[in-house]
Amino acid sequence: MENWLIGSCPEIQRVRALMPALAGADACVLLQGESGTGRHHVARLIHQQSKRSAQPLRIVDCANLRAQQNLDEQLGMAGEAPGARGTLLLSGIDELPKALQGRLAQVLDELAADSSDRGPRVLATAKADLHQRMLRNSFRQDLFFRLSVVTLPLPPLRERRGDIPALAQYFLGLSAAELGKQISLIDPDALAMLAGRRWSGNLTELQSAIHCAAVLERGPTLSLISLPGVVDSGMARAS
Description:
Blueprint: H1 10-24, E1 29-32, H2 39-48, E2 57-61, H3 68-75, E3 87-91, H4 98-113, E4 121-126, H5 130-135, H6 141-147, E5 150-153, H7 164-179, E6 185-186, H8 188-195, H9 202-216, E7 221-222, H10 229-234
Parallel strand pairs: 1-4, 1-5, 2-3, 3-4, 6-7
Helix pairs in contact: 1-2, 7-9
């Protein structure tokens, strides 16, 4: 499995250091960050390193939940839980309508009170700062505290620019292996171009750019000319 926890920025170092404890516990973990920062990747790592790794990781898209019946079906409350004994990932919990937040808080309370250990371990992701949402009364306080036993903020790529060379090299290795190509280096000019971009799509966008360049590259070194045009002209330069 891919591991995006590469780099020396303090937030990423903290996540790496906490990973054994997070995987070894059943506490709720809230992963907060912009799109493309690796929230789902970290959630999958937690699941795969946990005692529940042999059981399924069930992902529920909270943005698509519009009624209590829909919520109960997705959480398995109408029958056998889809994530029973596995991990339940509540994706985009900040997009869950407030009308359903009370029901979800009730479900999480029931799971926490179940001493049989038959229910799923719960993880959640959010783009928005749920604490601020709670203070503005747009997110239920009881649900926030149930979900945020451990909160992990994942920084955007523009705030960890020093990690771009290592991340680019890592993504190049993945792409080269997938394409069956012998590309092991990145030209300094290409690396400077990558490091100088804002990357509004964060790690996801960087990985896509590297993969595109690897497809186009014919030599053993990823060159500036192979980088997709969006890197050079279609993206705003970092301030």
